[in-house]
Amino acid sequence: MSAGKTRDAIRLDRRRFLQVMAGAAGALVVGIRAADAADAPLPPALLGDNFHDLGAYVRIDGDGNVLIGARDPDTGTGVATSLPRIIAEELDADWNRVSVIALGLGVGNDNGQPRWTYGRQVGGTGGSIPAAWRDLRQVGALARWLLMQAAARRLGVSANRLRCDSGTVIAPDGRRVTYGSLAADASQVALPARAPAVKIAASYQLVGFPAGDVDAHDIVTGQARYALDQHLGDALVAVLVHCPWPDGTLARIDTSAALAVKDVVKVVQLKPEPEQPWGSTVIAPAVAVLAKNTWAALQGRTQLKLEWKPGASQDESSTALEQQSLATLGSHAAPTTRVRDDGDFDAASKQAARRFEATYFQPWLAHASAEPMNCLVRLDKDRARLVVPTQAPQKAWAVVQRLTGLAPDQIDIRVPRVGGGYGRRLDHDFVAEAVMLAQAVDVPVRLLWTREQDFSHDYYRSGCVHQLNAIVDRKRRLTGWHQRMASASALAHRGGSEDHLWSSELRADQIPAGLVPNYRSDWYAQQSAQPRGPFRGMPHLSNAFAVESFIDEIAHQMREDPLKTRLRILGEPRQLPLGNGVTLDIGRLRNVLQLVADRIGWKNWLRSVNGLGIACWHVDGAYVAHAIETAMQGEKLTIQRVVCAVDVGRVINPLGLHGQVVGATLDALSTALDPAITFKNGQIQQHSYKDYPLASMAQLPNDVEVITVPGDRTPTGASFLAMPTAAPALANAVFRVSAVRVRRLPLMKELLRML
User: Fold this and answer.
1) Whole-model pTM?
2) Which residues, 6+ apart, have CB-to-CB distance to 378 below 8 Å?
3) Mind listing the domains of the chain with CATH numbers?
């Protein structure tokens, strides 16, 4: 077969194909693609001689160097390391000779419809490893199989008698041939009739062993290239002024002074497309100043004379919305959605020995990512090229395709390292803005948001109110639980079914669902014009705080050890079906809870001078618990120790998992301590980190002790696993050191108010 031509494909599960491509330079490239997909453009580093538009993951060149592409955007979750290591493990590659690059969006054209070359491409949601575990092992296994067939011919030995190790094929008599010397021959080997078998876990040399981030050195030395460091020709810089009301309009504009600023080229008005859902169009009416450089654009922006007219949201306030939520819950009206209803809570309540009730409040939150929203775009007659820090390049593609009408394979999206996502970059309003501006000026555009815009025009996590009721019988058993939650859904105005708006706010399987015979969960929809969207750890983050704090309150009122209370609620180790295919492994949840209790010294919880708090949770087959020790001197709160135990099944990279657990824990503690988004007269009141304070190093613990439970089950996600339980464990510890029960976040403001 001639160089640069693709070979026949072998069918895999879910209509995926393994492809083998050969290049004139003797490189072996193996990839996985959708059925009959036209190949997506690849970064130059993955292209050997005569390679063009090849949807590949792996390149092995004649020198034995291995280049592996990471398909999912890395937002700090470490997938740029963990995903390539899955391939490298099956390939038996020498990790010291592996280089990793970020793959851009892979999309082909199927009669005008997109075919995704790499399958799922989403980062920062906890789904990267579970989604890749099967596919990427097959990619590596096929590459290894081809190399062994080539080695068998050269060595005159049956392939099943050969073994691979660190980039070398080894014969029974000790003869060795390197992958580099085999690459050209291996690329000519006919494909197998079925997918080669993957390795057994006992032979793993990379999976389960620690590895540092592949781009850590570049990041700490300032060499990492983010989207802001990329270039597409002579791009104009665009900065925006958004309307302070998301539903407002532009009443008057005078651009003369702005256009008089040196190097300012044009002023453009942008309007949201009313028929498009949130996250796919302009977030609010805006005016853009385009200039030859950033300074000129910013100076031009200050010279704009604008008058905005408010919309219906001008009377909204976060305080009024909270009061409305309380009134709704207090009215005992029928819920918008009854999420779950096991047994008969009302009947059980009449026979209860004791009843408990509490209300918990949580504020609106901003994403506050380190890298502000930005997008670099070049539009030509038959091609769009973008460099964009996105968590979901396929969603970005959909926005570009809708606005340009280009064919699927005419849209090239590159995704460099992302400076924080937290769910904000699952939305692409800023991509829509950049494309609209590029269309308006017919030259490349680099859109830059300021920090103030990031805070003032976010897709926020809605504030929420939880009203919880529980009952116990005479044997101190929890027999009834009723959670009523009021919030503005993050799924509103996004084109989904009205019947499922609750699913961004509650989980039908969350603790203690399935553990209580009479369990009821209700959601009450609140209305707000403020944009809402995906947020790291939601809906677990808000619900775990309320639920795990309430369980702690129940234990206190029953004068009982909170650990003992939780273990009694969980019951004996067993597999507990929760519905919709979800099974709760009680043994694994009990285990992480007991591990943190033992490590923190929980047996002294009642006699300790400091306060000890504990909490546990489960997320899609993964299990987590926190134990926290706090101290107080006057009004100063100190977090002395934090212990977190996680069980995610098989661990791909223990060092990466450790980093995710530590990072998520600190993020959750920071989110709980001080920040909150408020709005008054329809306008956001926070515009910088000064107004929205993240925790300082002095406020956070010196260390987070991480306990990783070893396991051989299919790996689960971990990017936000440690988020839900940190805040309730902290609040529970604060109660024991201060006798103040914090039911409202942010914690510090409420604690100081109540002391």
Assistant:
1) 0.93
2) 232, 233, 235, 384, 385, 386, 438, 444
3) 10-220 (3.30.365.10), 230-311+373-448 (3.30.365.10), 318-365+460-754 (3.30.365.10)
